[in-house]
Write a structure and sequence with these properties.
single chain; 295 residues; alpha/beta; N-(1-d-carboxylethyl)-l-norvaline Dehydrogenase, domain 2; binds 1,4-dihydronicotinamide adenine dinucleotide; NAD+ binding; 3-hydroxybutyryl-CoA dehydrogenase activity; oxidoreductase; 3-hydroxybutyryl-CoA dehydrogenase
Length: 295
């Protein structure tokens, strides 16, 4: 079945990315089934999606009728079985190969044989994820950037198993969603996350060597370097749970190439639960500090 506006879209994982992608798919006219294993996450996602659609309405990107209709097309579900209605299912759960493979295996019996399945992974092997599916030929990476409603770029990543033509079909769908798709090969971190690793890694090394502190490095990179966000504000925004896992996964996937070596400073933040903006604390303390800008 070709991917059209009438295709119901399933999202598994209603965190920052799942909710953001759901908002984009709803605004593009799809019915969306959003699943999370935690009810609190579903409720939080529904609030974020509603507020995002209202913002688009206020900015004139959607009419009031379109925004209400989009909101009404959202179905929250705690049952994977409800994703049977979907022609495209994307997962955006924790960045962990074992957990993602277990989810893909659990999903399989509920999906139709024609359903396209995708991962929003930032760094993991698409081939290894595809191997957990009954139809690896209908699996690929569709990697959005954070925040998904704002960031135009989407990396479309076919695995070695992906059937010819599927990546092009998904690229057309992303264009219909007003995104700018780029085809990337199935290598660790794809394009952006691979290039971004040294950006974070070198900033962490500067900090660990005592060359400058966090606000100074962020200030220099935004004011002088022309970056929209400094590396530490950006890591806090992404979340250290996500960013540390991505670094560790890219390091391992490149056979422990020292260029991608993770930092103990970030590992400790990850272990402490100081996951950045979403935890209220990371490199910055969001309760007390003047908070760095959002993208
Ligand atoms: P998050 O931590 O905000 O959300 C993950 C959600 O998945 C949580 O609500 C959690 O309850 C749910 N979940 C975990 N295991 C589950 C399971 N087995 N079944 C159902 N729900 C489950 O994470 P975030 O930031 O949304 O990232 C999700 C994925 O997107 C990761 O693969 C990450 O690498 C990728 N990504 C993250 C970006 C970022 O900047 N945060 C950017 C682009 C991709």
């Amino acid at each position: 079945m070709p991917l059209t506006r009438t295709t119901a879209v399933g999202l598994v994982g209603g965190g920052a990315m799942g909710a953001g992608i759901a908002q984009v798919a709803l605004a593009a006219g799809h019915r969306v089934y959003l699943h999370d294993q935690r009810d609190a996450a579903l409720q939080h996602a529904a609030r974020a999606i509603r507020s995002g659609l209202e913002k688009w309405r206020d900015k004139g990107k959607l009419t009031a009728e379109e925004a209400t209709a989009a909101e009404n097309r959202l179905h929250l579900t705690s049952e994977l079985a409800e994703l049977a209605a979907c022609g495209l299912v994307m997962e955006a759960i924790v960045e962990d190969l074992t957990q993602k493979q277990a989810l893909l295996q659990a999903l399989t019996p509920h999906l139709t044989d024609t359903c396209i399945v995708a991962s929003n992974t930032s760094s993991l092997s698409i081939a290894a994820l595809a191997s957990a599916c009954r139809h690896p030929e209908r699996f690929l990476g569709i990697h959005f950037f954070n925040p998904a409603p704002l960031m135009p770029l989407v990396e479309v990543v076919p695995a070695v198993q992906t059937q010819p033509g599927l990546a092009d079909e998904v690229r057309s769908l992303m264009q219909a969603w007003n995104k700018v798709p780029v085809l990337a090969k199935d290598t660790p971190g794809f394009i952006v996350n691979r290039v971004a690793r040294p950006f974070y890694g070198e900033a962490l090394r500067l900090l660990e060597e005592g060359i400058a502190d966090v606000p100074t490095i962020d200030w220099a990179m935004t004011e002088l370097g022309g970056f929209r966000m400094g590396p530490f504000a950006l890591m806090d925004f992404i979340g250290h749970d996500v960013n540390y896992r991505v670094t560790a996964s890219v390091f391992e996937a490149f056979f422990y190439d020292p260029r991608y070596k993770p930092s103990f400073t970030q590992k400790r933040l990850f272990e402490a639960g100081y996951w950045g903006r979403k935890a209220g604390r990371g490199f910055y303390d969001y309760a007390t500090d003047a908070t760095p800008p959002e993208p």
